[in-house]
Design brief:
The chain is α+β, with helices and mostly antiparallel strands. The chain has 4 helices and 6 strands. Strands 1, 2, 3, 4, 5 and 6 form a 6-stranded antiparallel sheet that branches. The longest helix has 20 residues.
């Protein structure tokens, strides 16, 4: 894990701890890893970042208020890499592995709770993938298929 010490305006020490998540997605538009990373005629990367921020914030607010939070203005969630995963991919689909970093700000002396925070985020993300809340957290205006105007562009993107 990476750790960076920071000082907040109210003179309370805060430490950044990175939580790295990986997940599989697929699409029926032929978007490969390069197209998503380059944001070439799509906004999938921004949609995935927004969903990760939303779900991580919900997890932290529910269980770790005053202990840990996201500061997305100064320490945004990032997608580090997207990899093409052609093996075992269904006909007509493009399968991808997403590797993302969620920077969590640990308050004061709460750094010893990082493992609990990390586990909660990992489990909460996994639950959100299974119950559909991660996909539902992707903004509706996310462009998945270039040139497609649809009331549900997310119908083209699935979590595997």
């Amino acid at each position: 894990t990476l750790s960076k010490g920071l000082k907040l305006d109210n003179d309370v020490s805060s430490t950044e701890q990175d939580v790295i998540i990986t997940y599989d997605i697929s699409n029926d538009c032929g978007l490969d890893a390069a197209a998503i990373m380059d944001e070439n005629e799509n906004t999938v990367m921004q949609g995935l970042i927004a969903a990760a921020e939303t779900i991580a914030t919900q997890i932290l607010d529910a269980s770790f208020s005053g202990v840990a939070h996201l500061n997305t203005d100064e320490h945004p969630v990032v997608i580090d890499r997207v990899l093409d995963m052609p093996a075992n991919c269904a006909e007509g689909m493009t399968c991808l592995l997403v590797i993302s970093t969620i920077p969590v700000m640990m308050e004061g002396d709460s750094g010893d709770q990082y493992q609990a925070v990390r586990k909660a985020i990992m489990n909460g993300m996994q639950t959100s993938f299974k119950d559909g809340s991660f996909l539902n957290a992707i903004p509706e205006d996310t462009v998945v298929c270039p040139g497609t105007v649809s009331s549900s562009t997310m119908s083209h993107l699935t979590l595997n």
